[in-house]
Design goal:
By secondary structure, this protein is mostly helical. Helices cover 71% and strands 0% of the residues. The protein folds into two domains: 87 residues, no CATH class; 49 residues. It has five helices and no strands. The two termini are 28 Å apart.
Length: 136
């Protein structure tokens, strides 16, 4: 089984929610979510400070940490499919992925974006440049 960029993204997508529900990350918040059967884990717009609400930032972070991993899984499946059918990922996708990762690195410097995803994005970019050179 050849490791593709799509499979790497799928791996990140599986590990992210598992880490999110662990006691080392947001386990306490997910225990609270489970008590509500994962229904209405926030007050939505009523928590928005502009509407005089009070955000629960820990629940917000826990949800998005978990959800980001779930979003990476279909993205990884799509990238894997494109790699299998076309043999390469479009350069526009790689640029968009790199920009999203760089914004994530800027916003949260000590995170998986910096440790795992930035090297992966750079690897994808270098791999694409190598493919372009081989084709010419």
């Amino acid at each position: 089984m050849k490791i593709t960029n799509g499979r790497i993204l799928i791996f990140f997508g599986i590990i992210h929610p598992l880490l999110g529900i662990s006691p080392f990350a947001f386990g306490e918040q997910f225990a609270g979510f489970a008590n509500k059967f994962f229904f209405k884990i926030s007050e939505g717009l009523w928590e928005f400070p502009l509407l005089n609400g009070q955000m629960n930032y820990e629940n917000f972070a826990a949800f998005w940490f978990f959800y980001f991993g779930l979003l990476l899984i279909p993205l990884g499946i799509l990238v894997h499919h494109v790699e299998k059918t076309n043999g390469q990922i479009p350069k526009n996708f790689i640029w968009a992925y790199l920009i999203v990762v760089i914004v994530g690195v800027f916003m949260i410097p000590f995170s998986g974006m910096t440790i795992f995803m930035l090297p992966h994005a750079i690897y994808m970019f270098m791999q694409k440049n190598k493919q372009v050179k081989n084709e010419s």
